[in-house]
Design a protein that fits this description.
The chain has 146 residues and is of the alpha+beta class. It contains three helices and seven strands.
């Protein structure tokens, strides 16, 4: 099974999410993506966050593991701190940036208010529910399997 790493990035009462339109299906997901064969999940996380946002991860803690049946990826969700930065932008040379250039399966970054996160059309409801609960009660001390 393939693995993917995703980032929870929160700043100033907002969470960074990716708005996607994939073959006409519009939804929101966390920034991140699939691991390459030669990468650790932490390396994947750093690379994917950079490619999709231009932000540099400086610290990451595994919060959730979201298991999925084949052919989908097992998702490892990290709470991340990033270096001081300007505007978060999908990088033009990334897979997402290239798809955006051709208006295929578009990707757009959004800083969503934490108070409205639970109302977004999030890709995986079980993860959304876990994040909403963590926002209310605090993030887990140990990774939680969903």
């Amino acid at each position: 099974m393939r693995k993917a790493a995703r980032a929870i990035i929160i700043e100033d009462g907002k969470m960074l999410v990716m708005q996607r339109n994939k073959y006409g299906s519009e939804y929101v997901t966390l920034v991140g993506g699939r691991a390459n064969d030669d990468e650790t999940l932490e390396q994947t996380l750093v690379r994917e966050v950079w490619e999709e946002t231009g932000l540099q991860v400086v610290a990451a803690t595994l919060m959730f593991i979201e298991e999925h049946p084949e052919p989908y990826n097992e998702q490892y969700i990290y709470y991340c701190n990033v270096a001081p930065h300007g505007e978060a932008l999908v990088q033009a040379n990334s897979e997402e940036g290239q798809m955006n250039q051709y208006d295929m399966n578009t990707h757009k970054l959004l800083w969503a208010n934490l108070s409205s996160f639970e109302h977004l059309n999030f890709r995986t409801p079980q993860l959304q529910k876990a994040i909403v609960e963590a926002l209310r009660k605090g993030f887990p001390k140990e990774p939680v399997k969903l």
